[in-house]
């Protein structure tokens, strides 16, 4: 794309822009949105890598702020054309209290919506989650479903509850009049389990494998499919839909889209081994040694220990009844809605996504290779 200062006139704000997904969205916008003049990156914790972005043609403005503080959000939103709201408290391990999760994910989203309305910002993309739909607590499979597939969405855990409430607020805000009299246009993207460079849980599994002598132990049947999507493609979907919100407001406004790409359908553990395997780890089959009831027992013991130890320390292992149910319930999507509505095609093939992720795992300190 030819450089032109004339076309650079748009101001974007990315909340949570220093998180795992947020950083990819920020970098993708700088690479693929030629109309960008200023990119505001709003986060509770700013990353040092932002400095290196400040030398290009786009003004990158780092804003340290808290989405639960309405005045901080309003100041960051004022004058922005588009807001990508990716900030969130992602916690299914019991690290944060339900109240904090609600404040960040629900009140934070309300603050973003109100800031758009008050300041006249018209376009808002919300990073929702597959968990708005499921898996539900009954363990019903969602097999290659799409945005219209009926499913009994029952939320008990604070994180999916908060994402579902926040998504509803964003969709209900579509069409609200913003300052200046024009309508707000909103939509929500629902990634399944995101993977790729910077994925903390992949990092945790890798280090756990190293501690266990290069082994991980299969806990979930290989037949349980878990939806995964590459972070670069999720970022690309955000950039594309943000661009199209204005042009195709009537079609895209108020809509939800699952995030998808060519990543294969596999169990959570088999999928991780696509990257961890080439980095020297192997998955040991233990189905006979660890039946499901035993895993459930361990998960409940972990939950009990977490509760007992809470006054003294934070015990938050990966395995708890909720994460076990998530990993053990088939949830995969198969849809082309984003392609039909705003021309989305994955930017990264499965081979690219895999190669990039493996390269990142290998670069981690203490590689098993
Ligand atoms: N990781 C996944 O698999 C996944 C899947 C579906 C949806 N999502 C959603 O994507 C978004 C980004 O998730 P992620 O995986 O990059 O998580 P992350 O924790 O890496 O990023 C979230 C960012 O939000 C920031 N943040 C948290 N509280 C804040 C606050 N009060 N004010 C301002 N910033 C705050 C954090 O500092 C962090 O940089 C979240 O909304 C999450 O719900 C993630
Ligand atoms: C039983 C363990 C033995 O190896 C495996 C536990 C795996 C769990 C820690 C993860 C299984 C499914 C993951 C979640 C899923 O990919 C989707 C998510 C939605 C998103 O909005 C946030 C992250 C997450 C909840 C993700 C978290 C980790 C798992 C529960």
UniProtKB/TrEMBL annotation:
EC main group: oxidoreductase
Keyword list, A-Z: Endoplasmic reticulum, Lipid metabolism, Membrane, NAD, Oxidoreductase, Steroidogenesis, Transmembrane, Transmembrane helix
One Pfam family cited in the UniProt record for this chain: 3Beta_HSD
Residue ranges of the TM segments: 292-309
Pathway noted in the entry: Steroid biosynthesis; Lipid metabolism; steroid biosynthesis
Record GO biological process: steroid biosynthetic process
UniProt domain 3-beta hydroxysteroid dehydrogenase/isomerase: residue ranges: 13-285
Membrane topology of the entry: Multi-pass membrane protein
EC numbers, comma separated: 1.1.1.181
Leader sequence segment: none
Catalytic activity: 7alpha,25-dihydroxycholesterol + NAD(+) = 7alpha,25-dihydroxy-4-cholesten-3-one + NADH + H(+); (24S)-7alpha-dihydroxycholesterol + NAD(+) = (24S)-7alpha,24-dihydroxycholest-4-en-3-one + NADH + H(+); (25R)-cholest-5-en-3beta,7alpha,26-triol + NAD(+) = (25R)-7alpha,26-dihydroxycholest-4-en-3-one + NADH + H(+); 7alpha-hydroxycholesterol + NAD(+) = 7alpha-hydroxycholest-4-en-3-one + NADH + H(+)
Gene3D superfamilies in the record: NAD(P)-binding Rossmann-like Domain (3.40.50.720)
One Gene Ontology molecular-function label: cholest-5-ene-3-beta,7-alpha-diol 3-beta-dehydrogenase activity
InterPro entries (alphabetical): 3Beta_OHSteriod_DH/Estase, Lipid_A_modif_metabolic_enz, NAD(P)-bd_dom_sf
Cellular component GO terms, alphabetical: endoplasmic reticulum membrane
Family that this chain belongs to: Belongs to the 3-beta-HSD family.
Function of the protein: The 3-beta-HSD enzymatic system plays a crucial role in the biosynthesis of all classes of hormonal steroids. HSD VII is active against four 7-alpha-hydroxylated sterols. Does not metabolize several different C(19/21) steroids as substrates. Involved in bile acid synthesis. Plays a key role in cell positioning and movement in lymphoid tissues by mediating degradation of 7-alpha,25-dihydroxycholesterol (7-alpha,25-OHC): 7-alpha,25-OHC acts as a ligand for the G protein-coupled receptor GPR183/EBI2, a chemotactic receptor for a number of lymphoid cells.
Name of the molecule in the record: 3 beta-hydroxysteroid dehydrogenase type 7
Classification lineage: Eukaryota, Metazoa, Chordata, Craniata, Vertebrata
């Amino acid at each position: 794309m030819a450089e032109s200062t004339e076309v650079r006139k748009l101001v974007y704000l990315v909340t949570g822009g220093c998180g795992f997904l947020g950083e990819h969205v920020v970098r993708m916008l700088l690479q693929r949105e030629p109309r960008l003049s200023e990119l505001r990156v709003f986060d509770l914790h700013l990353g040092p890598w932002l400095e290196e972005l400040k030398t290009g043609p786009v003004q990158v403005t780092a804003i340290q702020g808290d989405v639960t503080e309405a005045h901080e959000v309003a100041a960051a939103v004022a004058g922005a054309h588009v807001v990508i709201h990716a900030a969130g408290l992602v916690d299914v391990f019991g690290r944060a209290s339900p109240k904090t999760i609600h404040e960040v994910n629900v009140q934070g989203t309300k603050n973003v919506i109100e800031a758009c309305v008050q300041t006249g910002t018209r376009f808002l993309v919300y990073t929702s989650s597959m968990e708005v739909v499921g898996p539900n607590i009954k363990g019903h499979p969602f097999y290659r479903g799409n945005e219209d597939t009926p499913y009994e969405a029952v939320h008990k855990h604070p994180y999916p509850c908060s994402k579902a409430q926040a998504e509803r607020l964003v969709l209900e805000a579509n069409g609200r009049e913003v300052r200046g009299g024009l309508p707000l246009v909103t939509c929500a993207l629902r990634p399944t389990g995101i993977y790729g460079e910077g994925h903390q849980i992949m990092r945790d599994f890798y280090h756990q494998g190293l501690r266990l002598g290069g082994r991980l132990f299969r806990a979930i049947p290989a037949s349980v499919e878990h939806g995964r999507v590459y972070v670069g493609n999720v970022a690309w979907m955000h950039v594309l839909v943000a661009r199209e919100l204005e042009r195709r407001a009537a079609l895209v406004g108020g809509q939800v889209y699952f995030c998808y790409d060519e990543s294969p359908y596999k169990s959570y553990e088999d999928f991780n081994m696509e990257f961890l395997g080439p980095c020297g780890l192997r998955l040991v089959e233990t189905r006979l040694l660890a039946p499901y009831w035993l895993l459930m027992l361990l998960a409940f013991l972990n939950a009990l220990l977490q509760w007992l130890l809470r006054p003294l320390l934070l015990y938050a292992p990966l395995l708890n009844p909720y994460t076990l149910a998530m990993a053990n319930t088939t949830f995969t999507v198969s849809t082309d809605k984003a392609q039909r509505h705003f021309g989305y095609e994955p930017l990264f093939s499965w081979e690219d996504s895999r190669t990039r992720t493996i390269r990142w795992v290998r670069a981690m300190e203490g590689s098993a290779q």
